[in-house]
Amino acid sequence: MHALITGGAGSIGSRLAAALIERGDRVTVVDVRADPVAPSASFERADVRVGETQAAGFIDGIVAETRPDAIFHLASLLSGSSETDSELAWRVNLDGIRNVLEAARIHGLGRVLFPSSVATFGMGVGDTVTDDSPQWPAGLYGVTKVLGERLGVYYYQRFGVDFRCVRLSAMVAPTAPAAGAASAFVCELYIGAVRDGGYTFKVYPHSRIPLVWVDDVVGSILQLHDAPANQLSRRVYQVMGSNPTVQEMADAVRRRMPDVKLGFDPDPVPAGVVDSWASSMDDTTARADWGWAPRFDLEGMTDAVLAELAAEGSAG
Ligand SMILES: NC(=O)c1ccc[n+]([C@@H]2O[C@H](COP(=O)([O-])OP(=O)(O)OC[C@H]3O[C@@H](n4cnc5c(N)ncnc54)[C@H](O)[C@@H]3O)[C@@H](O)[C@H]2O)c1
Predict the structure, then answer these.
(1) Span 2-171+213-240+285-290: which CATH code?
(2) How distant, in Å, are the alpha carbons of 11, 175, 185 from that of 178?
(3) What is the residue-level pLDDT of the chain in tens, covering all 316 positions?
(4) Distance CA 95, CA 76 (A)
């Protein structure tokens, strides 16, 4: 298979590219930044936004030229930057998915894979959100993701574009969290523990949050891509790894780093936001239809993220 990954220089995209190459697929990465991408992936510096002169922008030209079998559309602004630069978020997140779907329609491509987010749900949605819980996001990022989901389903129903979407829990990765995101404390905990020897939470210890480790994100995207069409009962599937409380996350770190200094100094505003989120994502449909099962629970994820951060520290 030839896979085109937009946003392929990012946290998920770079691992997805490596995983595809590892299994023998050919990969073209499209990104606006030229960070090192997976070895042996082709790289195109390009923008998924609408071009001045072409309806479907530069992405259309790349798709016409390279004719991928699947597009993994990951290019996006994340939650914090979507609030600080709403104009750019609108163009990257909304024009981007439209351009990709248009290119897929025009050139009769195979699959379009798209990651959505738990941020499509707003506050006060109750304990567990299902695939079909009402989506009334509190931030622009979530709004753009709801629209991406809906547009993809529309292109599937109207034009037969094979759109497939994973709606992800908050992702844990050994990379700096998105600036300004209320969920930033998740990655800050691990980075603070390894680099600074500690971390003070601004959120409540009892808050429970749905998480997923980055390698499980990549695994879920690949599994959904590979699933036979006749096994899919829907186009958008929820995916969760584990849903510990903040205290349980801290305890898991402390078990591995007994000297780490972890404390709580909740700030009522961000703490209240996090506390009002859904504490669990029901992913039973993904499990039933295409065999989704996370490989990393809280313990496995804590081992993985601390090991990767420690390795980075000793390499740097
Ligand atoms: N990180 C999370 O917690 C999380 C959770 C759910 C869904 N997602 C989604 O997964 C996808 C990837 O997220 P990530 O965590 O790897 O983010 P990331 O910021 O690491 O990667 C996004 C990439 O998109 C690129 N990009 C931005 N604007 C672009 C443009 N106009 N044209 C081309 N490339 C552009 C960036 O340079 C970056 O490399 C995004 O769609 C995100 O919304 C992420």
Answers:
(1) 3.40.50.720
(2) 11, 9, 10
(3) 999 999 999 999 999 999 999 999 999 999 998 776 777 888 888 888 865 434 456 677 788 888 899 999 999 999 889 999 999 999 999 999 999 999 899 988 889 999 999 999 988 888 999 999 999 999 999 999 999 999 999 999 999 999 999 999 999 999 877 777 888 999 999 999 999 999 999 999 999 999 999 999 999 999 999 999 999 999 999 999 999 999 999 999 999 999 999 999 999 988 998 999 999 999 999 999 999 999 999 999 999 999 999 998 776 5
(4) 10
Q: Is 186 helix (H, G, I), strand (E, B) or coil?
A: helix
Does the beta carbon of 75 sit less than 6 angstroms from any atom of ligand 1? yes
Test site for ligand 1: of 37, 77, 78, 220, most ligand atoms within 8 A of the Cβ: 78
Q: Where are the domains of the chain?
A: 2-171+213-240+285-290, 182-208+242-279+296-315
Residue 227 has which token pair? 């699933």
Residue 11 beta carbon below 6 angstroms from any ligand 1 atom: yes
The reply to whether ligand 1 has any atom less than 6 angstroms from the CB of 7 is yes
CA distance 27 to 191: 30
Fold of 182-208+242-279+296-315: UDP-galactose 4-epimerase; domain 1 (3.90.25)
The pTM score is: 0.95
